[in-house]
Specification:
This is Endo-beta-N-acetylglucosaminidase family protein. By secondary structure, the chain is of the alpha/beta class. About 25% of the residues lie in helices and about 20% in strands. Helix 5 crosses helix 6 and helix 7 runs parallel beside helix 8.
């Protein structure tokens, strides 16, 4: 891997190490066709609670290759009892390239597949607590990415795959993460100005009420408007991509309430930094706080530092 290629889920000080780790895992992605699986699209009949806390939303990525998505549902506010996390993101499915058909295809490795197929225990319990569950889509070193579709028909075909997966597995939306595509591999085109805008436009038409979020990074971050349309008018949220830092995503059309300038790696961002980022988020009027890399370890003390600032409450952990 090119040592200058940024690691998706790292603070600036950990970019090189992280890149090597993610390269190893992403190369193990395998194809999966949801239509060959047996899954339901209905939620349990249990009462669906709602996450109605004031102070903005908390979003959490989970590396499901090594951790359970269900861990996101174990944290609640001590005062009020609402869930700490409003949105849990399955990290990550891939956009792969079929060299025979020369088309982009959605691919899930075995661990992502396991979460989706076992939605009754991994996804539905979170939704029944009022949380939303998204599937993140990431490049996979094969040349296919969100920014190099050369026709609306090709973008629409991939958008259809995403929408079908959301519907089939009863998910709440899609998260776009434009990294590791390695545009040009397999003789694929380089990024163009229209591709990502058209892809989001087509997906929004297919999923008018679902969530679409954008991890503010990669070629897509500089290709957010085309043909009179803006990605910011079609997506629901965007967040900063560098953990341990504060940087407002430059997504025209999204209000402060839908942006997360603060991003933390739960395993490496210090408590003082996490608290400082929360203070900036609150003082500057932004509505989303991004967390990454939740494991099975009880982190309620760490979370409480941020939660007391954002929500005026400590956090309770329920195994």
């Amino acid at each position: 891997m090119n040592p200058t290629f940024h690691f998706l889920r790292s603070t600036a000080a950990m970019l090189t190490t992280g890149a090597a780790l993610l390269f190893a895992t992403s190369c193990q992605k395998e194809s999966n066709n949801p239509n060959n699986e047996t899954a339901g699209t209905e939620r349990n009949n249990a009462h669906v609670e709602s996450v109605t806390k004031s102070g903005g939303k908390s979003v959490c990525y989970v590396e499901v290759n090594s951790n359970s998505l269900a861990n996101t549902g174990k944290y609640t506010l001590t005062t009020g009892g609402q869930q700490l996390f409003d949105i849990a993101i399955i990290f990550a499915a891939n956009i792969n390239y079929n060299t025979t058909t020369k088309k982009a295809v959605l691919s899930n490795n075995p661990n992502v597949t396991s979460v989706l197929v076992n939605r009754a225990t991994q996804i539905v319990p979170l939704q029944n607590k009022g949380m939303k569950v998204l599937l993140s889509i990431l490049g996979n070193h094969q040349g296919a990415g969100f920014c190099n579709f050369t026709s609306r028909a090709a973008a629409k075909a991939f958008a259809q795959q995403l929408s079908d997966t959301v519907t089939y597995y009863g998910l709440d939306g899609i998260d776009f993460d434009d990294e590791y595509a390695e545009y040009g591999v397999n003789n694929t085109p380089q990024p163009n100005d229209s591709s990502f805008v058209i892809l989001v436009d087509e997906l929004r038409k297919l999923m008018p009420t679902k969530i679409i979020s954008f991890y503010y990074y990669g070629p897509a971050a500089s290709r957010l408007s085309w043909g009179g349309k803006r990605v910011g008018d079609m997506v629901d949220y965007s967040w900063n991509a560098i953990y341990g830092s504060y940087s407002v995503p430059n997504v025209a059309g999204l209000p402060k309430s839908k942006l997360a300038p603060a991003a933390v790696d739960i395993q490496s961002t210090s408590q003082s930094t996490a608290n400082s980022l929360a203070t900036q988020t609150k003082n500057n009027g932004y509505g989303v706080y991004l967390w990454y890399n939740l494991t099975s370890t009880d982190k309620h003390v760490y979370f409480s530092g941020v939660s007391n600032i954002l929500y005026g409450s400590s956090v309770t952990y329920t195994p």
